[in-house]
Each structure stands twice: as structure tokens, then as C-alpha cells.
Specification:
318 residues, mainly alpha, 2 strands
Length: 318
């Protein structure tokens, strides 16, 4: 485990170093504009897997937490001109509190009833923001970016690097949970919640913790979007496509390990960006649906399941 931790953190440092080097050497801003979206989906997919993958509670309310992150940043920017770091930190705090509240209200529900409750949450939060005039209401709000911070020469490049930091934070958090007693407890309640309770696993506390951590990471991942687009409106911030895409990315990559959602986010995120440039962004939903059906039918355990199956076959042949 110690050797794996060293390898992980070395990989994280190399990843951040490469991202930073790209921001200093590439002049065209479009790769960073598109790369930001891919990195953002990596954060959302990894965060979703804490509750949806490890605990087995399918959350369709990702867009609620994402939108809360966006509008927390909007509120702080408009009211206090808070810097980006403060916006992200407060968004994470608000997201964790929202997750904790949702947990208390819904986590005694199971299966489809929990999933329906999370959809209702998104509708309630979106409706509240739509009627909040201070943050623009239904018409949305334009935002002015502050001066870029050196050593970056554009705000988009800085946001790209910030999102890379959030990727490392989300992956490190999810990895720590997976390798701890918390992760083993979440997997136990996913397999059989009643049996886990009978053996002394504190299932309710673990679910509340998973909800709070997942909500914090999703809201933190959404916070930079306000300055990324320089505009926010409820229909886009609380778009259901976030929930569907994140669910698909996690299932396609595999939910048994933290690297699964990362692979799914890279595969789907890159595919969607290429389609948006070459054909149309409207095709993204169609491709998303086709890929999800193909993987659910042909590879229910995702990319990780395919890799494990190929390893097993290789060992049998050897």
C-alpha cells in the first residue's frame, strides 16, 4: 500500500506538472477551453462514485450539487468579489451541508425511491434559484472575470490548471475512502445493507458521510464554471445532462475502483468534444445513449471489467 501511495502521488505531481507546462507553452486557448470540460467531468464522475459506486445508492441529483456550486460562486462574486479559491472552498462547504441534509431526509429510502428523491431535490433547488433575482433569476447573469493571476497569461488557462488541481483532490479523496474502513463499510452495505447492519457496520453514518463528501466535491467542481462561461442561468447550471453524463461515465468506466470513473470521463468527454467540433454538440446525447446501452449489455462492469476479463484469459492461456 505504501508503494502504491508513492506511485500515486508521483503520478499526481507529474500530471500537474504536465498541465502547467501546457498552459505555458500552448498559445491557442481552445484546447484548454475543451480540456476544462473533460477535467470537470472527471471530478464529477469520481465524486459520484463515492455514493453511487461504493455505496450503491444511484444519485440522479448531480446537477443539483453542480448548480449549487455554480451559484455559490456567482453569489460570492457578485456580493463580495471573492477570489476563485474562496468560491471553490465555500461551494464545497455548501455542497457538503446540502449532501448532509439530503442524507438525513432520503437515505432511509432505498433503491428507486432514493433516486427519485434526488431528482426532486434538483427540481426544488433549480426552482428556488430561478426565483432569486439577486443572482439573475430565470434570465441568468453575466459575470466579469477578474485580472488573471501570474504565471498564467489567460483566465481560461488558469481555470484549466485549477480544474486539474480539483481532479487530483477528488481522486485522492476517493482513493483514500476506497482504501479505508469507510470504503469497505460502504461496499458491505452496497452488497447487502441488512447484513452489514447486523454485523455492526454503521450504515447510516457511512451513507451520510458519503453523501456529504460526494456533494462537496461535485459542488467544488462546478464552482469554476461561473467564471469559465462568464455567465450562469438555472437551465444550464441545473441541466439534467450533468446527471446522465456522470452516471454514464461511471458505469462505462466501472464503479468498483476509483480509476473507472476517470477512464469513463476521459473516453466520453473526449468523444463529446470531438463530436462538438466535427459534427454538432446535439449528437452528444445520442452517442452517450448508444455507448451506455452497449456497455450495460456487453460489459456491465465497464472498462475495468473488460480489462480484468482479458487478464484472466491471458493467465489461463499462460
Amino acid at each position: 500500500m505504501h508503494r502504491h501511495s508513492i506511485a500515486f502521488w508521483l503520478g499526481a505531481v507529474v500530471f500537474l506538472a504536465v498541465v502547467f507546462l501546457l498552459t505555458q507553452t500552448i498559445g491557442n486557448e481552445y484546447p484548454f477551453f475543451a480540456g476544462f470540460v473533460i477535467l470537470q467531468f472527471m471530478v464529477l464522475a469520481v465524486a459520484w462514485s463515492i455514493l453511487g459506486g461504493y455505496a450503491g445508492y444511484v444519485n440522479f441529483g448531480t446537477n443539483a450539487f453542480f448548480g449549487v456550486g455554480v451559484y455559490t460562486a456567482v453569489l460570492l462574486s457578485k456580493a463580495f468579489e471573492a477570489p476563485l479559491a474562496v468560491q471553490i472552498a465555500v461551494a464545497a462547504l455548501v455542497g457538503s451541508l446540502l449532501g448532509l441534509g439530503v442524507g438525513f431526509l432520503t437515505l432511509r429510502m432505498r433503491g428507486i425511491f432514493f433516486s427519485i428523491a434526488t431528482i426532486a431535490l434538483a427540481i426544488i433547488v433549480e426552482t428556488s434559484v430561478t426565483n432569486w433575482r439577486f443572482v439573475g433569476g430565470a434570465a441568468g447573469i453575466q459575470l466579469q472575470r477578474p485580472p488573471v493571476t501570474p504565471p498564467f497569461d489567460s483566465y481560461v488557462k488558469m481555470l484549466f490548471f485549477v480544474q486539474a488541481l480539483l481532479v487530483v483532490t477528488a481522486v485522492a479523496t476517493t482513493r483514500a475512502i476506497q482504501n479505508s474502513r469507510i470504503g469497505r463499510g460502504l461496499q458491505a452495505l452496497r452488497d447487502d445493507e441488512l447484513a452489514a447492519e447486523c454485523t455492526g457496520v454503521p450504515t447510516l453514518r457511512l451513507k451520510l458521510l458519503a453523501c456529504a463528501v460526494s456533494g462537496a466535491l461535485i459542488s467544488a467542481g462546478g464552482a469554476p464554471s461561473a467564471m469559465y462561461l462568464q455567465y450562469a442561468d438555472p437551465s444550464s447550471a441545473f441541466n439534467l445532462n450533468y446527471s446522465i453524463s456522470v452516471l454514464a461515465m461511471s458505469l462505462i468506466g466501472g464503479t468498483a475502483h476509483w480509476i473507472g470513473p476517470v477512464l469513463g470521463a476521459i473516453l466520453l468527454g473526449v468523444t463529446q468534444q470531438l463530436l462538438a467540433v466535427t459534427i454538432s454538440s446535439e449528437v452528444n446525447v445520442l452517442v452517450l445513449g448508444i455507448m451506455l446501452v452497449v456497455f450495460v449489455v456487453g460489459a456491465p462492469n465497464g472498462i475495468l471489467g473488460l480489462l480484468r476479463r482479458s487478464r484472466s484469459r491471458a493467465r489461463e492461456r499462460a
